[in-house]
Design brief:
The complex is a heterodimer of chains A (195) and B (103). Chain A has 195 residues and is an all-alpha fold. Chain A contains eight helices and one strand; from the N terminus they run αααβααααα. Chain A is elongated. Chain B is of the alpha+beta class. In chain B, a hairpin with a 2-residue loop joins strand 2 and strand 3. Chain B is elongated, with a radius of gyration of 15 Å. The two termini of chain B are 14 Å apart. Classes of the chains: A mainly alpha (195), B alpha+beta (103).
């Protein structure tokens, strides 16, 4: 492209064509969802079997493995790739900020639940499902928005299932639905689109 | 009445860069060059002119061992772009052949 002056119509056409180049849809490879989904499901099952086998409530501290393992895996598998993206859109930034807010709130609730009695599995599954639905709506992926809303309704089951051990299984099921399955769908779509 | 066009923006490559940066939060030098089909030398010169005018922010960093230049539009750049588009509008209704004047 030459650095030449040009007329007003060419200016307008140029502005329109350049702006159109920035309007590409958000493209996710789903890896973040896969990481958070599998980590949550696996840790939930570990907590479930530990509590079932021993009955020792101290095994609830294993829940903190979710942020530790999740963020570590995200850092090693995705963070660098995210940083090295040649262009960051406002949608990228908005999605990141949504999850920073939800992440901070969830961590705060996790600590609070050890001090005071809270229906923590219900609250966390509700918040993460709402975050997922919000992400789906922002990035305009109907699948993500739909599973987010399904998870929002399913989280109510954590309130109505009286047994804590059963609540853990429901919690794991919710994450399987809202993160693992759509994560794999996004990953397979991404692979096809980059072939 | 015709409004003068900002000469810093009214250049094909600089206008392209401003339009691209308006639609994203930040972009690297290589991406901007690919989108505009500009040469590295020309792009460097135009980016420096926009930076000197305060229209874009330029951050030089590294990706691994490779240097990397990240650009983003500033509020001053957004305001200047909006003024430029307003000025362009005053030319739209004119008969064909009338050329915009620079500041």
């Amino acid at each position: 492209m030459e650095d030449a002056n040009f007329n007003e119509k060419e200016s307008l056409n140029l502005i329109a064509s350049m702006i159109a180049k920035t309007q590409e849809r958000f493209q996710s490879n789903g890896v973040t969802f896969i990481i958070s989904g599998y980590v949550t499901v696996i840790i939930s099952l570990i907590v479930y079997f530990s509590l079932r086998a021993t009955g020792d409530p101290d095994y609830n501290f294993l829940w903190f493995l979710i942020p530790v393992c999740g963020y570590s895996l995200f850092y090693f598998l995705e963070y660098r790739k995210e940083r090295e993206k040649p262009v960051h859109t406002f949608i990228d930034s908005m999605v990141a900020k949504i999850w920073i807010v939800f992440g901070v709130v969830v961590m705060l609730l996790m600590f609070t639940s050890f001090i005071t009695s809270l229906p923590i599995l219900f609250i966390i599954s509700l918040l993460i499902s709402a975050g997922t639905a919000l992400t789906g709506l922002v990035i305009r992926y109907p699948l993500i928005a739909t599973v987010g809303f399904i998870g929002t309704f399913l989280s109510l089951a954590c309130l109505f299932v009286p047994d804590y051990l059963m609540q853990i299984l429901v919690f794991a099921l919710i994450f399987l639905i809202i993160h693992v399955i759509p994560g794999h769908v996004l990953y397979s779509r991404y692979k096809k689109s980059t072939r | 009445m015709l409004q003068p066009l900002n000469p810093i923006i009214h250049s094909e490559l600089r206008l392209s860069v401003m339009s691209l940066l308006l639609g994203v939060e930040k972009a690297d030098f290589t991406w901007l060059r690919q989108q505009t089909d500009a040469t590295s030398g020309n792009m460097s010169v135009q980016i420096e002119k926009l930076r000197e005018a305060g229209y874009i922010k330029v951050k030089k960093t590294y990706r691994g061992k490779m240097p990397c230049t990240i650009c983003s539009i500033t509020q001053k750049g957004r305001d200047a772009f909006a003024e430029y588009v307003e000025a362009l509008k005053s030319y739209i209704a004119l008969p064909q052949g009338d050329q915009p004047k620079e500041k």
